[in-house]
Amino acid sequence: MRRTLRSGLAAALMATAALGIAIPGTADAADDSASPASSAAFSYRCATGWAVSLADGVKIRTQPRNDADVLVTVTKGNERQCLQGYYITGDHYNGCGVYDASAWIYLWTPSGNGYSAMTCWGDVYS
Question: Is the distance from CB of 103 to CB of 85 less than 8 angstroms?
Answer without folding.
Answer: no
